[in-house]
Amino acid sequence: MCNRCFDNIGGRILADQPTIFVLNGPNLNLLGTREPEIYGTDTLDDIAGRLDDRARAAGALIDFRQSNHEGHLIDWLHEAQAVGAKAVLLNAAGFTHTSVAILDTIKAITVPVFEVHLSDPHKRESFRHLSYVGMAAKAVFAGHGAKSYELALDVALQL
Ligand code: CA2
Predict the structure, then answer these.
(1) Which atom of ligand 1 is least distant from the CA of 93?
(2) For residues 55 and 61, is the Cβ–Cβ distance under 8 A?
(3) In the prediction, which pLDDT does 15 show?
(4) Is the pTM of this model over 0.70?
(5) Is 117 an annotated catalytic residue?
(6) Is 149 a catalytic residue?
(7) Cβ-based neighbours of 45, under 8 Å, separated by 6 or more
(8) Is the CB of 39 under 6 A from ligand 1?
(9) Are the beta carbons of 157 and 55 closer than 8 angstroms?
């Protein structure tokens, strides 16, 4: 059976299995190498592997990506919509607190977006208390280290 099939009418890619996009923003490629007291010791690959196992056990697929560029995150949110993703887990990192463009994108798509953070921004500097992502996200999972992603995934899988 094909994993992804084209629907003849809209040209939309339909996955046989629900797909959840996990999008990671700037500097998260450094995870596990610096500031372990804030972000833990797991690398992004460790997190991706665990989410993959968890999703597969529930009959779903993970599409896990990281970029240091705001426009990539925006293009990937559009892509999540275009391919009919079930949900997006978004750790926009520093863009969380600055990006009206990402907020506009989340508002422009119908795919549910869950905001994810390793740390709890509300327990840190005041400039991290404002979240543009949170203004449109379905829910926020923060402060549980890498577990924040797994908690968000469990909720997304139940949609
Ligand atoms: O706690 C989170 O997940 C954050 O999204 C991480 C962002 C920060 O700007 C947000 O306020 C909260 C920073 C990501 C930087 O990632 C690094 C990872 C390891 C070492 C250095 C940076």
Answers:
(1) 5
(2) yes
(3) 52
(4) yes
(5) yes
(6) no
(7) none
(8) yes
(9) yes
